[in-house]
């Protein structure tokens, strides 16, 4: 039984002795596996600090700069309401009409009043002319002449009022047909033909989708550092790439409920089709922080592990790294590298751990 015990332990002892000898030899296990050591010419650089902008990201949405709640100036039944939600209209296009029967009746009534005022003025003028001659001949008293003169002036004023009422009644015909005030899209419809329209009650909502902005709410600390013309990064749902918008409206009055300020940013004209109401994320930059930054080309993926080749004593050593933010063509290294390390920054796809690096084509200092 003891003989069997020794025979089972012997392979394990041999394995431990083999690993111990390999460690004393000064080469790692991965280098031992790399039987053929290559000499590769690759650019290198020294790791140093870079700057990463500090951003506060807030939610926002796309809003139209021009939005109209279309209502009628007249009270009456709606007719010819044929536009639908989503229809595009041009400025001056007919949106709907109001039944003009009531307007016509008002015009007839005002015209009748105007004619009566004209007749009353003519009669008052005859009396005035007659009494004027009699007063000049001392045939009537001054009191009688003043009374007739007053009636004549009142008749003139009544005619002016009747004329104004008649003109106003006629002008109501201009509001029977409600037309689009600007080019836009019908985004909401709150009535149908046959409903009663009243002044101030919207029938349609029209938006100009050719002029859009991003609106968001920011806290007091962000608002305090913003200025008109500042740039901010905007990410829209449905758009792969972010872009930059320019702050053009800063509302100093805070919302009493949320204690936030309204900020509007312009949208570039070349971003393609964007719909009103699209969700947006707006990143406002305020200061920066220091971090280790390396070119993105320095990072390689080996068996699902992200790493960078560090050159030490002329040999490439693979260091596993933890990545952070990407800024342009550089990436933040949160762990795995130290300041002053020399790293391979390109031509590293075929490099193996332990390969010799020839740095004749080095990229200066600064990763």
Cα radius of gyration in angstroms:
43 Å
| Structural class by sheet pairing and helices | alpha+beta
Let me know the number of strands. Answer: 23
Question: Level of helix content?
Answer: 25-40%
The major beta sheet can be summarized as: 6 strands, antiparallel, barrel
* Shape label: rod-shaped
Percentage of residues in DSSP E strands: 35-45%
DSSP summary: helix tally: 5
Q: H/E series, N to C?
A: HHEEEEEEEHHEEEEEHEEEEEEEEEEE
Low-confidence parts: 1-32, 361-367
Task: State the distance separating the first and last CA atoms.
Answer: 64 Å
Strands of the widest sheet, in order across it, are 3-12-15-14-13-16
Mean pLDDT: 83
Summarize the entry for a quick read.
The chain is α+β, with helices and mostly antiparallel strands. It is 27% helix and 36% strand. It has helices at residues 2-24, 29-33, 101-136, 142-171, 220-223; strands at residues 39-41, 44-46, 48-64, 67-70, 76-79, 88-89, 94-98, 177-179, 184-189, 196-197, 204-207, 212-218, 231-236, 243-250, 261-266, 279-295, 299-302, 305-312, 315-320, 322-327, 330-335, 342-344, 356-358.
Describe the protein's architecture and organization:
The chain is of the alpha+beta class and 367 residues long. Helix content is 27%, strand content 36%. It is built from five helices and 23 strands. Helix 3 (101-136) runs antiparallel to helix 4.
